[in-house]
Amino acid sequence: MKSRKNIQILGFLFLSILASSCGHKEEKYHSVNDRIKVEGKNYHGTSISSEAFLGDGEFVEITEGEHTFLIPERKGKIKLYACIECHSKPLKELQGKVIKKAHWNIELNHANSNTMNCATCHNSKDMNSLKSITGNKIDFNKSYQLCNQCHTKQFEDWKGGAHGKRIGGWAPPRASMTCVNCHNPHKPHIESRWPSRFNTQTEKERK
Ligand code: HEC
Ligand code: HEC
Ligand code: HEC
Ligand code: HEC
């Protein structure tokens, strides 16, 4: 009887020490951010790098607001680039010529035709660059700036890393896919599809 009581007292003591030590920590730092500020004083980043995981592709560095990161290079990936190999003359002169329908496969399925046509994004006088709504040049490697004009929300999310996908590892340098890596600018809607693995048996049973 007596020893059980002793154990109870010991337990109580132990718990109260535990409680008081937790309370002590809370007093020392007002918030988690304060704690990081003080205890992280001597932390100057990590020496670990994800460079080795970036693969062979080329990247370009961009700075948007307070974010600086790498995105995949595009011009080397576009088969028809450089455009001026054909677009050295006005469109009228090209139309109906031998190379007619050089890119007949491109069909616009994006915004409706009141809002958008080829000339919304391409400049027939300077086909090697994209064009903003106000007529400014946008480099093909920075086509996200084109999308940003109308999809600011997704752009802001992407910049911060909430929309899109990171390439390589968590360690610096940060490299992220750019809009056109996932969305075809001419047909940006992502088709819904089955998960890569689903139960085909259940599917049969449902029928
Ligand atoms: C092999 C030659 C060739 C190359 C390379 C080429 N084009 Fe063209 N492009 C044409 C021809 C020919 C036309 C006119 C087609 C027609 O209207 O029949 C045309 C028309 C266009 C038009 C106008 C379409 C319309 O209906 O108003 C755009 C925009 C365009 N090209 C963009 C590009 C861009 C951007 C590139 C580079 C990424 C490019 N082209 C590369 C041959 C080419
Ligand atoms: C919303 C903006 C936008 C519109 C509208 C648009 N394009 Fe493009 N186009 C782009 C971007 C961005 C790229 C580069 C994509 C990349 O990096 O792969 C591109 C690439 C191309 C290319 C070269 C790559 C390929 O797919 O062969 C051609 C040719 C082209 N566009 C023609 C056209 C024509 C013709 C039209 C009208 C029918 C058109 N574009 C409408 C944004 C647009
Ligand atoms: C001139 C304005 C404009 C530009 C520039 C533009 N878009 Fe769009 N986009 C629209 C409009 C309008 C819609 C259709 C409205 C909607 O369904 O929300 C749309 C729809 C979309 C959708 C949703 C399609 C769906 O139904 O799921 C995606 C994804 C998209 N755009 C991506 C892009 C990308 C990537 C770029 C840059 C290459 C771009 N857009 C450039 C105006 C624009
Ligand atoms: C890693 C691939 C990836 C990248 C990079 C990416 N997106 Fe998307 N995006 C998606 C997916 C997946 C969806 C969701 C489609 C759905 O819900 O049906 C989406 C949806 C959208 C939509 C439709 C509205 C919505 O939120 O559902 C817009 C507009 C859009 N993206 C624009 C952009 C723009 C602009 C960029 C670049 C700044 C971008 N995306 C970069 C994969 C990507």
Automatic annotation (TrEMBL):
<keyword id="KW-0732">Signal</keyword>
<dbReference type="InterPro" id="IPR051829">
    <property type="entry name" value="Multiheme_Cytochr_ET"/>
</dbReference>
<protein>
    <submittedName>
        <fullName>Cytochrome C</fullName>
    </submittedName>
</protein>
<dbReference type="InterPro" id="IPR036280">
    <property type="entry name" value="Multihaem_cyt_sf"/>
</dbReference>
